[in-house]
C-alpha cells in the first residue's frame, strides 16, 4: 500500500461514520418513505466520512453520479491524507426494511487498499453462497443446494435439519427454496438486504449457517470484506439478467462463468469494516432512542488482526449538535 499502512484505529474511526448514518436513517423507521430514509443516511455518512484520515475513492456507492446526490462511484472521500484506500459504502442497506419497520436494516462501510476491490461494472446481480469459518472447505457454488447443506452439516458436526439458510424471498429462488427444504434445511426468507445475513452466517452464534441465492453484486463485495475479517468464505458468480447484459459484461472483460472467491472480490490484506444496526436483526440491534439521545449497536472488524469488536454507544444529542448541527434530531 503505497508506503502508508492504515493506522490501527481506522476501523474505530469508521464506526462513527456508520453510527451517524444509522441515526440519520433511524428517524425514518416505519414512516413508509424509503427515499427520505436513504437520503438521511447518505447525508449523515458523507458528513462524517470526510473527518476520517484517509485518501479514499468510492468503488461501491450509490451508483453513477447522475443518479446519486452523494457517495457516487469514483467520488473522493476522507480527509485526503493518510492511506490510499478503496471504499465501499451502503449508508442504508434495507431502505424498504427501514420504511416498513422490518428487521435487518444496517448502515455499513468497508475499506481496503487502493485498487483491491472488485468493481461490479454492469453486473448488478450475482449468485452467492456464504458461510462461517467451520464450513469454508465445505461450500461449493457449483454443487447442488442439497450437497451444500449436507457438506455444511458434516463440517459443523450436525444434521442437515439443523442447518439454517437465509435466502432472499424472490420468484427466481423458488427452485432453490424447494431444494433446500427437500434437503431438510431450515429456510429463513428475508425481504431485502443480504449483507447483514451474510455477515451473520460468517459470525457464528447468530442462528444463521448459510446465505444462498442471487443478490446484489455490490452487496457481495461488502459482504466479502466482512467475511474476510471474520474468517468465513463467500463464493459468487455474476448473474446477467439478459443476453444483452451478458454481452456487455463479456465486452468489458468480465468472465461470467468464473467463480469469484472472497479474495477475488476484495484482494486487500488490510480490510476494515464497520456496521451499525438501523432496525434490529440477526446481527445487530437497531437504533434505540432515549429522552436525550440514542443508543447504537455496531460491529467493527479488521482483517489483519482478526479482531471483531461489538460497540454499544450512547449518544447525547445536546453534545452532538454542537459538533454536527441538528441533522440527527
Structure in a nutshell:
Helices cover 31% and strands 26% of the residues. With 329 residues, the chain is α+β, with helices and mostly antiparallel strands.
Report the end-to-end length measured between terminal Cα atoms.
Answer: 39 Å
Structural class: alpha+beta
Largest sheet properties:
8 strands, mixed
How many helices does DSSP assign?
A: 10
Count of β-strands: 13
Helix content percent band: 25-40%
Low-confidence stretches: none
User: Rg to the nearest angstrom?
Assistant: 19 Å
Protein described:
The protein is an alpha+beta fold. The chain contains ten helices and 13 strands. The strands form two sheets. Strands 1, 2, 3, 4, 10, 11, 12 and 13 form an eight-stranded mixed β-sheet that branches. It has a five-stranded mixed β-sheet with strand order 7-6-8-5-9, with helices on both faces. Strand 6, helix 5 (174-182) and strand 7 form a beta-alpha-beta unit. The protein is globular.
What is this structure's SSE topology?
Blueprint: H1 10-26, H2 34-49, E1 55-60, E2 76-77, E3 84-93, H3 95-100, E4 106-113, E5 125-131, H4 145-155, E6 164-168, H5 174-182, E7 186-190, H6 195-203, E8 210-216, H7 217-230, E9 233-238, H8 243-251, H9 262-265, E10 272-277, E11 288-290, E12 293-302, E13 308-316, H10 317-324
Parallel strand pairs: 1-3, 6-7, 6-8
Antiparallel strand pairs: 1-2, 3-4, 4-10, 5-8, 5-9, 10-12, 11-12, 12-13
Helix pairs in contact: 1-2, 6-7
Amino acid at each position: 500500500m503505497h508506503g502508508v499502512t492504515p493506522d490501527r484505529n481506522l476501523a474505530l474511526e469508521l464506526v462513527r461514520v456508520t453510527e451517524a448514518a444509522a441515526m440519520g436513517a433511524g428517524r425514518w423507521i416505519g414512516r413508509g418513505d424509503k427515499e427520505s430514509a436513504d437520503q438521511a443516511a447518505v447525508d449523515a455518512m458523507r458528513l462524517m466520512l470526510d473527518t476520517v484520515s484517509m485518501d479514499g475513492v468510492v468503488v461501491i456507492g450509490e451508483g453513477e453520479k447522475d443518479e446519486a446526490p452523494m457517495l457516487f462511484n469514483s467520488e473522493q472521500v476522507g480527509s485526503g491524507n493518510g492511506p490510499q484506500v478503496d471504499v465501499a459504502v451502503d449508508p442504508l442497506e434495507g431502505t424498504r426494511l427501514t420504511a416498513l419497520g422490518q428487521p435487518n436494516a444496517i448502515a455499513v462501510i468497508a475499506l481496503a487498499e487502493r485498487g483491491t476491490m472488485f468493481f461490479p461494472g454492469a453486473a448488478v446481480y450475482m449468485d452467492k453462497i456464504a458461510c462461517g469459518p467451520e464450513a469454508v472447505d465445505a461450500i461449493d457454488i457449483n454443487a447442488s443446494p442439497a450437497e451444500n447443506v449436507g457438506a455444511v452439516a458434516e463440517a459443523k458436526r450436525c444434521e442437515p435439519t439443523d442447518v439454517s439458510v437465509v435466502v432472499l424471498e424472490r420468484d427466481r429462488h423458488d427452485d432453490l427454496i424447494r431444494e433446500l427444504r427437500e434437503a431438510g434445511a431450515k429456510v429463513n426468507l428475508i425481504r431485502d438486504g443480504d449483507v447483514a445475513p451474510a455477515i451473520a452466517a460468517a459470525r457464528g452464534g447468530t442462528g444463521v449457517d448459510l446465505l444462498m441465492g442471487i443478490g446484489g453484486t455490490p452487496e457481495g463485495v461488502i459482504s466479502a470484506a466482512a467475511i474476510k475479517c471474520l474468517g468465513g468464505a463467500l463464493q459468487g458468480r455474476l448473474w446477467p439478467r439478459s443476453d444483452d447484459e451478458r454481452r456487455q459484461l463479456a465486452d468489458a472483460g468480465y468472465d461470467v462463468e468464473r467463480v469469484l472467491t472472497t479474495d477475488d472480490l476484495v484482494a486487500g490484506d488490510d480490510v476494515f469494516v464497520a456496521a451499525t444496526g438501523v432496525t434490529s436483526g440477526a446481527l445487530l440491534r437497531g437504533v434505540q432512542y432515549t429522552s436525550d439521545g440514542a443508543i447504537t449497536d455496531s460491529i467493527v472488524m479488521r482483517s489483519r488482526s482478526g479482531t471483531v469488536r461489538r460497540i454499544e454507544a450512547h449518544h447525547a444529542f445536546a453534545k452532538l449538535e454542537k459538533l454536527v448541527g441538528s441533522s440527527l434530531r
